[in-house]
Amino acid sequence: MNIVQFPINTLNFFYEISGVEVGQHFYWQIGGFQVHAQVLITSWIVIAVLLSSATLAVQDPQIVPNGAQNFVEYVLEFVRDLARTQIGEEEYGPWVSFIGTMFLFIFVSNWAGALFPWGIFQLPHGELAAPTNDINTTVALALLTSVAYFYAGLTKRGLGYFGKYIQPTPILLPINILEDFTKPLSLSFRLFGNILADELVVAVLVSLVPLVVPIPVMFLGLFTSGIQALIFATLAAAYIGESMEGHH
């Protein structure tokens, strides 16, 4: 009886932990589920900015690119190089859109949180902030990455993909399984922790020394925000490439 009760108590504990919140949040009821409205609002704004920018940039494509088209092609070439380096010359093509979407969404989200004065918009509870400032967003992005590299491995190698768990020796089976749990954890908490810490530091400095000191820290935050987007996209591409190669 005690043996059966232990996993039930453990699940109850994690369920209670999942209800822990920091600050106030504005909620919507959608289909019987309670969701963070401020995260959805800012996410939709970021998606709208990305879609509209891409549409306007390629609305009248030129053989010799200039202006916005030149910038879009530069970003596309950057993402292609990143995917080619991490996944491989032969396999990277189908994954450029996924890696590019991850990179651009995180990059624009991070910069929107650092540059845009979300505080001017009043909500009944809480306040608007970067989507990546919410653990739910970063966990969702990390889980999408996990689904992507499982899909890539199974598509490329079939059921033989699961053979990697007993390589180079079956003794490492528990560690290899644990690795698939730590990958999304590290991806989500690294991104969330860095963005949240940066916003907290800026908020504290603005409240203490509002004129000069916060400005260099804000510029540093822009740099680290871009680096975090690059790290996330690079690791996502590396995991996908690793799943198609075999054991590491």
UniProtKB/TrEMBL annotation:
InterPro entries, per this entry? ATP_syn_F0_a_bact/chloroplast (IPR045082), ATP_synth_F0_asu (IPR000568), ATP_synth_F0_asu_AS (IPR023011), F0_ATP_A_sf (IPR035908)
SUPFAM superfamilies annotated for this entry?
F1F0 ATP synthase subunit A
Pfam families (alphabetical) = ATP-synt_A
Cellular-component GO terms for this entry: chloroplast thylakoid membrane; plasma membrane; proton-transporting ATP synthase complex
Superkingdom field: Eukaryota
Q: How does it sit in the membrane?
A: Multi-pass membrane protein
Among its keywords, does the record have Protease?
Answer: no
Q: Which UniProt keywords are present, listed alphabetically?
A: ATP synthesis, CF(0), Chloroplast, Hydrogen ion transport, Ion transport, Membrane, Plastid, Thylakoid, Transmembrane, Transmembrane helix, Transport
- UniProt-recorded Gene Ontology molecular function terms: proton-transporting ATP synthase activity, rotational mechanism
Q: Where in the cell? A: Membrane; Plastid, Chloroplast thylakoid membrane
What parts of the sequence cross the membrane? 35-58, 92-115, 135-154, 191-213, 219-240
The task this protein performs is described as: Key component of the proton channel; it plays a direct role in the translocation of protons across the membrane.
* UniProt xrefs under HAMAP family: ATP_synth_a_bact (MF_01393)
Concerning its family, UniProt says:
Belongs to the ATPase A chain family.
The record's note on quaternary structure and interaction partners says:
F-type ATPases have 2 components, CF(1) - the catalytic core - and CF(0) - the membrane proton channel. CF(1) has five subunits: alpha(3), beta(3), gamma(1), delta(1), epsilon(1). CF(0) has four main subunits: a, b, b' and c.
The protein's name is ATP synthase subunit a, chloroplastic
